Amino acid sequence: MAEKDYYKILGVEKSANEDEIKRAFRKLAHEHHPDKGGKEEKFKEVNEAYQVLGDKEKRSRYDQFGSADGPQGFPGGFGGAGFDPSQFGDLGDIFGSFFGGGGGGRQRARPRGEDIHVDTTMSFKESVFGVSKDVPLSKQSTCERCAGNGGEPGSKMKTCDACKGKGFTTATQRTILGSVQVRHECNECHGRGEKPEKVCTTCHGSGIVHARKTIRVDIPAGVEDGMQVRVRGEGESIGMQGEPGDLYLNLHISSDPRFEREGSTIYSSKKIGFTQAALGDSVEVDTVDGVVTMKIPPGTQNGDELRLKGKGVVSGRSGNRGDQIVVMKVITPTKIDRKTRELLEEANLRES
Ligand SMILES: [Zn+2]
Ligand SMILES: [Zn+2]
Predict the structure, then answer these.
(1) What is the pLDDT of residues 201-235, one digit of tens each?
(2) How far, in Å, is the centroid of ligand 2 from the Cα of 142?
(3) Which of 22, 57, 77, 309 has its CA 20 to 30 A from that of 255?
(4) What's the whole-model pTM score?
(5) What are the chain's domains?
């Protein structure tokens, strides 16, 4: 990746200053943003170029080693990092301040709808393997008739009278530093600068409706009790006034009397007879995958731990499953018939 010419990608001179680079990036990112119909490949490339040129240190390293240098040559290792999806989030912020009225200075964060929190109970086994849950919600959602745009389908858009199409209104505010011009998003058109000629008959122009909606949430394998799963944008919608909130699923995992979990390891116990412990045997053991046959070696002691490979829980990074540890509970007989007694006594004599 490092052999790409980042200056060319951003369309700036090698001598470009920070501001010029930033401006070029914003323009291109806007053009190629996937949400706005752009190509994701191109968008990533622009983003990648800006990750380097927009950072003083990385840029100087890049300048030093030149664009033709191999991807491994950088001690900072920015070249091979691949695309980080969280960058989309950062871009959202950049766009927020970019479209929010510009003009420099700090921008008020765009309003967001409320988050929704829902409790979900799942079985121990579901927590090990992951599960899809249908979550019924009754909430403010984007109006389907107008796709949230507030206009009756087929209705044309016209310039907003209140802001004359600018999308914002200006007011003068007195502060300790003197009078400051402040821009407010236009209330009439919510910053769009235009309004539909005919408002949507379902939502009356707000772009939102209260509706029941069932959302399928995929809960990944290996979750633990008390964890949360976030579904972006499935909270309350506030239509054109801002971003929808998020949906949070609070996970509750029912306990299973057969299993206990510690990280990626599952613990269980197995009762075995005194003779099985002494002579060894094959026994059936419950696992989350079903019943398996396990070999007990001769001379097994009470409390010995036998390992079943790969019968545990997926561990975060590797994606591999941990093990199940089966703790042996040797049951010593309380009643012994005469013949067994004699044999045991004989064995006891040999041992001592
Ligand atoms: Zn307006
Ligand atoms: Zn509508």
Answers:
(1) 999 988 899 989 899 999 999 999 999 999 999 99
(2) 8
(3) 309
(4) 0.58
(5) 6-99 (1.10.287.110), 116-253 (2.10.230.10), 260-351 (2.60.260.20)
